[in-house]
Structures are given as structure tokens and as C-alpha cells.
Design brief:
Layout lengths: L15 E2 L17 H13 L24 E9 L25 H16 L11 H10 L2 E7 L8 H7 L7 H8 L4 E3 L9 H10 L5 E2 L3 E2 L4 H9 L2 E2 L1 E6 L2 E9 L3 H4 L6 E2 L2 H14 L4 E7 L3 H8 L7 E5 L10 E4 L5 E5 L7 E10 L4 E4 L5 E4 L8 H19 L2 E5 L3 E3 L10 H21 L6 E5 L7 E3 L4 E3 H7 L5 E8 H11 L12 E4 L1 E5 L7 E2 L4 E3 L4 E7 L5 E6 L2 E2 L5 E7 H4 L13 E6 H12 L1 E2 L17 E3 L9
Parallel strand pairs: 2-3, 3-4, 4-5, 5-7, 9-11, 11-12, 12-14, 18-33, 20-31, 25-34
Antiparallel strand pairs: 1-8, 2-15, 6-10, 8-9, 13-14, 15-16, 15-17, 18-22, 19-21, 20-24, 23-31, 23-32, 25-28, 26-27, 28-29, 29-30
Length: 650
């Protein structure tokens, strides 16, 4: 039956334990009869003939006893992570070619998920068609099987598809419909759920009916709406899901440095391993003997590390790293030396993970059913769920189409915002975006009573969606949403030369890694760095090691004055002041930038709007202004490594 899109919320799911709340009362499993009585029950139910002394059909005082506890239980764990609002199928380019590994869209995802759920819940063997309902029930009790469906976080992401929900006149949260119609049993909270603040997460949870959201190491007490949802049992450290008479505990966890990569406001985190172990211990005390960890720790390596510190986990679902596992599942070793299966998916609803485990009556894993366990691709040309196609994909596609029709300008060169290289070197999309933020800040300086911007930084993690546009391409409003996906506000502060040097060192401190969002794209400055020299280290509060990588740096201030900041590795203008622009996320310590002590002014414009306005003002993105640095050429204009880049003379 189709779920309602509107209407009052169902009552909270039973068995959800709020974080930092006493455990709720659990029902105990009844003592059941022995195997011999169970076999007699099956024979009786299948034929409709009473057992000796009975009255037939299981009625009356002479009916057969209930079946004994199953000797084996087969659990199918269906899992996803990092859906990230990839609600629509990928579209072919102008030549009709789809990108590699295209997004299938959520209508195909939900259709496949429902099919896998039905398969996982089906009886282990089929009875004759004429078998009675009681026979089928008992057969399932003899050889129980069940499927549980879990998401391990990043269930939505800023951008045009999420904006379709934010701007919907009826208040429909389209991402939430995917999870309610998809029949999810538990959802882990990921870091992207906080990108637009805790209140949007509250909206999402309220829109998902009664599905529990789990994270053991989140403290939401400082956010009233989330605290109220915790009190209702909608947010919890763990939840209990009952399937085929067995209780399955699902424990959540989130990246401990949440505040450095998202905007959780007054939500804080605690030690993940300790919080997970506390939940596992409490579940075990309550008689739950099957426990799944569903975490969002940014990489499967972090899950492996966490599992090594805990005991009592039977399987782990990792989120945030979007790795493709081969073999599937992977394994980790817990603190007691047990091998624990670990799984994850690549995200964007492209795959559904299926981990099939067999448990004995004590809840011990007896087998990982390898022939059934797999990462199952959702085919681009597969069947579509009609409800999701009509109520999610269609309205979101209409909204996005309107954005795509608004052409802001064209590009004469390759525009490269792909990851990589955006997170380890200068690209022309980084140059374009930081120039846009600089222009927006200068345009609004008088209105907000601040100075003219001198230097702009954009953390490369804020440049999204792997955009790469060929020469001759239109640049639309949709393009700017794809690139500037977050609700980041252009912001400004006055800092001195010593502070600017500190920020520069941080921006290159992750090199030579190619996937760290702290790597900076810059405007208003040229500099040379040496990734072989000691990097800055920062503990979130104090710079522990200042870093020695910035070798040369020259700022061209708003009035055209050139200021040498660093020469031969030495800071030579520590007291010079600069009006420094970045986004509010970075000023609040995002990507662990050492800026949290700065008083800054937000300028009333998002970075996406700044980019849109700048491209519209340019009209044409030219090779003279933004040459190709990475696609067909390998060059630098503003900053680069020693030996490859030299600051040109004025």
C-alpha cells in the first residue's frame, strides 16, 4: 500500500533508546517447546489434522505448543550510505554520452531495494501451494529469514536537488520520501546533515515518519528541536529492530571532529569508541544478541580502527568514505580478536550493499553467506518505483530544469573543478570562485562597514560535484549550485600578516594527500610552497607546529599595493593588516582552520550567489582571465610548488 505523503506523524517506533536516557523496558522471549514438538506442529499445521489429543487448526486447549526457538537465523543486511540528494538519474552530455558510473535516480533505487527486501524476507524453502497459513508461519519459524535496511549517513546534501525541497511551497522533503517509501529500519546521522544547520536535520527527521536516527556519540542537548526529538525517541544512541522474532540492535556513530567539517552549531560529539561500547553493553544486558554498527566516520579505515577498540559487534556498515570494496565484505578485528565483516557502498544510490549472515540461537555468527553477499549495482535502465517517480523525481526534475534554463554565460576554456585536482593544486575553477567571492565582498563593503577585500580563501571541500566543462559550454544557474552546493556565507575579517601566514600554512598542510578539503584556492595573493618541509599541526585550539612550507608570498591589496609577506621562508610583514575573505564555515573552524578566535562579518550573500553574479557579470570566461591549468595544460598562475612556480615580477 502506498505511504501517505502528508498527514500526522506516526507514533515513535518502539524499542528506541534515547542517548543519555535510561534503557527502556524490553520484553523477554518466551520459553519455547523442543524440536520434536516443533516437527509435530509443522505436520499438524500443514495438513490441518490435529495432533493426538488436539482439536485441529491449532485451536482450543489441545492445540500443539508454539514452535521451538530457531536453530539458525539468516539475516540479510541491506545498506546504503552517502545518498547525498542524488535523487535524479544522470543525464547524457551534448553527444548523448552518459558519465561513467551514472547515478540511476531514486525511483530505480527504491524499486530494486523493495525487490531485495522481499527476497531477504522470503521463506528459506517453499511449501506446497495448498499449505495452510499456519504451515507457512511455522515453516518461517523453523528456518527464519529476514531483511533489515539501514543507511549509514549523509542522507542529503546541499545543492539544487535539496533546494527543490527547501523551496517547495507545500513543504515536501523529497529526500525523506526515499527513506519512508524505501522502508528503512534505521538511519545513521552523517556530517552533511548539519551543513545547513541542526534545524534542517530536525525537519528531515520529522518528515521520515517513525524511522529511528542513531548516533551514540552525538550530544544534541544544546539544540532544542533535536533535544525534543531525542526525548521522543526519534534520535538515539541505538535502536532495536525486531525481525522474525529476533531482536537486532543497531548502534550509530559519527565523526568525532564534526565541527571541523560541518555546521552543527550547539551539537557536540564524544569519543566514538567509548560511546559505541556503552551502547553495545546496554543492548547486551537487555538480551539483544545481534548487534550492527552503522557509523559515519569518513573512511572505512576509521571503522576498522574503532572496531579494534570495542567488542560485541557482529557486523559494521561504514559511511562517509564512499569506497568500493573488493572483496566484499571486508573484515576487521575487534578488541577480542574476532573477525567482523565490514561493508560500505560508493554512494549516490548507485549500489545496494547486501550482507547475508547466519546466526545461531545464541546470536553468534555461524556463517557469512558469501554467495549472497555482494555490492549490487542499481542499473541505470532498470525498473522504476512509480510512487517515487511521480512524487520525487518528477517535481525535483522540474525544479532543476528551471535552473538549467537560466544561462549565465559561456566558457572559452576547459573549466576544471574536478576532485582531483581541486584538492591538491590551483585550478581555474578555484581562481574563478575566489575572484567571485572577492568581488562580492568588495561590492558589499560599504553596506556592512568593512574594508575592501585584499585576499580570499576558499577551502576546496566547498567546491563540489566534480564539475568539468568543455570549451563552448553554457554556464547555467544550475552549474553554480552544483559547484557551490553549501549554504556558505561570504564573510570578512581584518587579520595581520602573522595570522595570514598561519592560514597559508594550514591550507597546504595536508599535502601530498589528494583528497583533503582544507586545501585552499586563493585570490589576491601569489605564493610558493614546499610540500617536503614540515607541515603545520593544529589541535583545533592551538597551533602546535607553525609549519615551514610557505617559501614566498606576495599580496596585491585592494588599492594595488604589493606587499611581500614571506621571503625565503621568513615572515617579513607580521604586522601588516589585510581584509581577509572566506566563508563562514571556515571562520567557524571548518576544515580545522585556525580562525575560530577571529571576529568576522557575514556579508549577506551565499558563495553560490557570489559565483552566479560574477559569471553573469563576466558573460564569457576567457583564456586570458582563467586559462586552463589542468586539463590540457599543467601550469600555475597564483600559487604552486617550489620548482614548478615562481612569483612573477610586477
Amino acid at each position: 500500500m502506498r505511504r501517505e505523503v502528508r498527514g500526522p506523524l506516526p507514533q515513535p517506533r518502539k524499542g528506541v533508546r534515547p542517548m543519555n536516557h535510561p534503557a527502556r523496558q524490553r520484553g523477554t522471549r518466551s520459553a519455547l517447546a523442543g524440536l520434536a514438538a516443533l516437527v509435530m506442529t509443522v505436520a499438524t499445521a500443514a495438513t490441518g489434522v490435529a495432533a493426538p489429543g488436539g482439536q485441529g487448526q491449532g485451536k482450543g486447549p489441545g492445540s500443539a505448543p508454539p514452535p521451538a526457538a530457531a536453530q539458525s537465523f539468516e539475516l540479510t543486511i541491506l545498506h546504503i550510505n552517502d545518498g547525498e540528494s542524488a535523487l535524479l538519474p544522470s543525464q547524457p552530455n551534448n553527444e548523448g554520452v552518459l558519465p561513467p558510473n551514472p547515478d540511476p535516480g531514486v525511483a530505480r533505487f527504491v524499486a530494486d531495494l523493495k525487490s531485495l527486501q522481499a527476497e531477504g524476507n522470503a521463506p528459506a524453502s517453499r511449501l506446497p501451494a495448498q499449505a495452510s497459513p499456519r504451515a507457512k508461519q511455522v515453516q518461517q519459524q523453523l528456518n527464519p529469514r529476514a531483511a533489515i535496511t539501514i543507511s549509514s549517513g549523509d542522507n542529503y546534501l546541499s545543492g539544487p536537488r535539496l533546494n527543490a525541497s527547501l523551496n517547495d511551497p507545500d513543504g515536501t522533503f523529497y529526500d525523506a520520501l526515499v527513506y519512508t517509501e524505501g522502508g528503512f529500519d534505521a538511519i545513521t546521522i552523517g556530517n552533511h546533515e548539519f551543513d545547513l544547520g541542526p534545524d534542517l536535520l530536525a525537519d528531515f527527521i520529522e518528515a521520515t515518519g517513525d524511522i529511528p536516527f542513531v548516533s551514540a556519540n552525538l550530544d544534541v542537548s544544546g539544540e532544542p528541536r533535536l533535544a525534543a526529538l531525542e526525548e521522543e525517541g526519534r534520535i538515539a544512541g541505538s535502536t532495536i529492530v525486531e525481525k522474525a522474532g529476533r531482536q537486532i540492535g543497531v548502534v550509530g556513530a559519527i565523526y568525532e571532529e564534526l565541527g571541523s567539517i560541518s555546521s552543527p552549531r550547539n551539537v557536540t560529539t564524544t569519543d566514538a569508541a567509548k560511546a559505541v561500547q556503552a551502547e553495545v553493553d546496554e543492548l547486551t544486558e537487555d538480551g539483544v544478541d545481534i548487534i550492527i554498527l552503522s557509523s559515519h566516520l569518513q573512511s572505512i579505515a576509521s571503522d576498522v580502527e574503532l572496531i579494534g577498540e570495542v567488542t560485541g559487534i557482529d557486523a559494521a556498515i561504514a559511511g562517509g568514505g564512499v569506497e568500493r570494496l573488493d572483496p566484499f565484505p571486508s573484515t576487521a578485528t575487534d578488541a577480542a580478536g574476532n573477525d567482523i565483516p565490514v561493508v560500505t557502498t560508493v554512494g549516490n544510490y548507485r549500489d545496494i550493499g547486501r550482507l547475508v549472515l547466519k546466526f545461531d540461537k545464541k546470536g553468534e555468527v555461524t556463517d557469512v553467506v558469501e554467495e549472497k553477499s555482494a555490492l549490487i549495482p542499481v542499473p541505470y535502465d532498470g525498473p522504476r518505483d512509480p510512487f517515487i517517480a511521480e512524487n520525487v523525481e518528477a517535481p525535483v526534475a522540474d525544479y532543476v530544469a528551471d535552473l538549467a534554463e537560466n544561462v549565465l554565460g559561456t566558457t572559452q576554456v576547459w573549466l576544471d573543478g574536478a576532485n582531483p585536482p581541486i584538492r591538491f593544486r590551483e585550478t581555474n575553477v578555484g581562481d574563478l570562485f575566489t575572484d567571485a567571492m572577492m568581488a562580492a565582498a568588495r561590492d558589499r563593503a560599504a553596506e556592512f562597514g568593512v574594508g575592501q577585500a585584499d585576499v580570499t580563501l576558499l577551502n576546496s571541500g566547498g567546491i563540489r560535484n566534480n564539475v568539468r566543462l568543455a570549451p563552448g559550454s553554457d554556464v547555467t544557474e544550475l552549474t553554480t549550485f552544483d559547484i557551490g552546493a553549501f549554504f556558505n556565507l561570504v564573510s570578512i575579517a581584518q587579520i595581520d600578516g602573522a595570522e595570514l601566514k598561519e592560514v597559508l600554512e594550514h591550507s597546504v598542510s595536508s599535502l601530498p594527500a589528494t583528497g583533503n578539503g582544507r586545501f585552499g584556492q586563493w585570490s589576491g595573493i601569489q605564493f610558493v610552497y614546499d610540500p617536503a618541509l614540515p607541515a603545520q599541526t593544529f589541535d583545533g585550539t592551538t597551533v602546535l607546529t607553525p609549519g615551514e612550507r610557505i617559501r614566498e608570498a606576495v599580496v596585491t591589496k585592494a588599492d594595488g599595493t604589493r606587499v611581500t609577506l614571506v621571503q625565503g621562508g621568513a615572515l617579513v610583514a607580521p604586522a601588516e593588516t589585510f581584509w581577509f575573505v572566506t566563508n563562514d564555515f571556515t571562520f567557524r573552524g571548518g576544515d580545522n582552520y585556525p580562525l575560530t578566535d577571529q571576529s568576522f562579518t557575514t556579508l549577506g550573500v551565499t558563495y553560490q550567489t557570489a559565483l552566479s553574479d560574477w559569471i553573469e557579470q563576466l558573460g564569457t570566461i576567457t583564456a586570458a582571465d582563467y586559462p586552463d591549468l589542468t586539463v590540457e595544460n599543467d601550469s600555475y598562475r597564483r600559487f604552486g610548488p617550489v620548482g614548478s612556480f615562481t612569483i612573477p615580477a610586477p
